[in-house]
Design a protein that fits this description.
The chain is built from three helices and six strands. By secondary structure, the protein is of the alpha+beta class. The protein has a single domain, classed as GTP cyclohydrolase I, C-terminal domain/NADPH-dependent 7-cyano-7-deazaguanine reductase, N-terminal domain (GTP Cyclohydrolase I, domain 2, 2-Layer Sandwich), CATH 3.30.1130. Strands 2-3-5-6 form a four-stranded antiparallel β-sheet, with helices on one face. A hairpin with a 2-residue loop joins β5 and β6. The termini are far apart.
């Protein structure tokens, strides 16, 4: 187990994978032959830095071209709420959200962007992309 100068290990970064997140529900797309884009913006995303315990705040944007299914928003809201006390790096949260959205909706294309509030004078914007 490799540690950095602060006694923090790679195991800390991977620990979020042990947390169970609620499933994201979907509904059947009524226009599966059309390529149209759905953009969902969640401006109140919060999680916790697993290294410092400090909160991370940001806006998560999910932009996708649906295939057979569209994301159900109420289940997505409850999914996001589980991140509130979850120790996860910003980069991992964006990639995990993309993974879970693709698993649920199987879109033609999906881009998840996390635009995080600056902390310590540094702002992070993380983008993860999937193409079928």
């Amino acid at each position: 187990m490799k540690k950095n100068n602060y006694g923090y290990s790679n195991e800390h970064a991977k620990s979020f994978k042990e947390i169970e997140l609620p499933d994201i529900d979907v509904w059947e797309n009524q226009y599966p032959g059309n390529d149209y884009t759905i953009r969902i913006v969640h401006p109140e995303f919060t999680s916790v830095c697993p290294k410092t315990g400090l909160p991370d705040f940001g806006t998560i944007t999910i932009e996708y071209i649906p295939d057979r299914y569209c994301l159900e928003l109420k289940s997505l809201k409850y999914y996001f709420l589980k991140y509130r006390d979850l120790g996860i790096f910003m980069e991992n949260s964006v990639n995990k959200i993309l993974q879970d959205v693709v698993k649920a909706a199987k879109p033609k294309k999906c881009v998840v962007t996390g635009d995080f509030t600056p902390r310590g004078g540094i702002k992070s914007i993380v983008t993860a992309e999937y193409k079928k």
